[in-house]
Write a structure and sequence with these properties.
376 residues; four-stranded antiparallel beta sheet
């Protein structure tokens, strides 16, 4: 066993953390208020049972039944003749039972009005649903950007969970149809575990405060190191100024979007090319568009590594075109020629039909040269 543990540690084979019972909020502390009424109910039942047995020689079953009928004041009457001493005992049992029953109802109503038990049960059900998510995005902080981003994620069938520390997140989730959500501080490690970040594809932080975005990016990168995750998360953030954009990129954000810059670029593009105003929106954001564009990563084991682009015959087999290549060092090559050499971990920007892009992915994921190339 020790040898296996050493081998696993040497190879960095760590099981990613998943939501388990330790992450679930405990409901038992909120049930402590019910202990006293429950204990008193048991005591009253025991006293009543032994009382009827001793005073009027009831059998155990008759005594339990008579005690239950008397305790709950249902008014079924006597199941057997009771002596004067038994009637006095019954009167006291009714008073004790009414007092215990009334206090139990009061405590129950009080706890339900607080809403803690209901909230805990909702969170437990939500965590069990979140534990099934894979390759999802963790969207942090609710605002206008979050509403629009989640709309696009739903249209593209990309799973996501929204995290926000404010209590209103429950109302917002119902209003804007968030299928998964949590009321928690996004940068806390417990929140990341509850959001099943270990199986997520990436994280999107959309806070209006640059300090919140900085804290969250640093926490995510620290989470990666502490839990030995095999690949880094794709982190997307927002920033108002270009200085903040550079800061967030240096801290570990993969992509930082500046709404001010995007608005300026869109307006200038509309002014320069009015005929191209809706082309990009129709092309990228329409869900019913047959044409699609995706970025495909060339794996280290792929057969196309160190092959020329024209040798892959992607256009002939899948009817797709490579319009750009991002090298491992981040350098982007637009409209690559057929003699361009493909390297491992480079990313191909492919345009074509959805079916053609799927064929291209399968083609590039093979370890050996596919048989289809014999007929091209």
């Amino acid at each position: 066993m020790n040898l296996l543990i050493r081998i696993r540690n040497f190879l960095n084979w760590e099981t990613p953390p998943k939501p388990d019972k330790k992450l679930l909020p405990e409901v038992y502390p909120h049930l402590k208020a019910f202990r006293l009424p429950l204990i008193l109910t048991v005591i009253v039942m025991l006293v009543g049972t032994f009382g009827y047995v001793i005073i009027d020689n009831f059998t155990i079953m008759d005594a339990i039944y008579q005690t239950a009928v008397t305790f709950t004041t249902v008014g079924f009457g006597e199941i057997a003749p009771i002596s004067d001493a038994g009637r006095i005992f019954t009167i006291n049992l009714i008073i004790a039972g009414f007092a215990v029953f009334s206090s139990a109802i009061g405590i129950l109503v009080n706890e339900l009005n607080k809403g803690h038990i209901v909230a805990i049960m909702k969170e437990r059900r939500m965590l069990y649903k979140v534990a099934r998510l894979k390759k999802h995005f963790v969207v942090c902080y609710h605002n206008d950007y979050t509403i629009e981003v989640t709309k696009q994620l739903r249209k593209n069938h990309i799973p996501f969970i929204v995290i926000d520390p404010r209590k209103e997140i429950h109302e917002w989730a119902q209003e804007y149809k968030y299928p998964y959500y949590l009321e928690a501080e996004p940068h806390a490690e417990l929140s990341m575990l509850k959001a099943h970040l270990s199986s997520a594809k990436g994280l999107i932080t959309l806070s209006d405060s640059i300090a919140d975005n900085i804290a969250l990016i640093a926490s995510v990168r620290l989470f990666e190191k502490e839990h030995y995750l095999p690949r880094p998360y794709y982190v997307i953030s927002t920033a108002e100024s270009m200085n903040d954009v550079e800061k967030l990129k240096k801290l570990g954000a993969n992509t930082v979007v500046s709404p001010t810059k995007l608005t300026a670029q869109r307006v200038s593009a509309m002014a320069a090319r009015p005929d191209m105003e809706n082309l990009l929106e129709e092309f990228l954001y329409k869900s019913d568009n047959p044409i699609d564009m995706q970025e495909i990563t060339v794996a280290k084991y792929s057969w196309v590594v160190l092959k020329k682009l024209k040798e892959t015959h992607i256009r002939e087999i899948a009817n797709t075109s490579v319009v750009g290549i991002t090298k491992k060092d981040g350098k982007f090559l637009s409209m690559p020629k057929g003699d361009t050499l493909l390297t491992s971990e480079s990313r191909l920007l492919v345009i074509g039909t959805q079916e053609g892009i799927k064929i291209t992915k399968d083609l590039l994921s093979k370890r050996v040269k596919p048989k289809e190339l014999k007929f091209v």
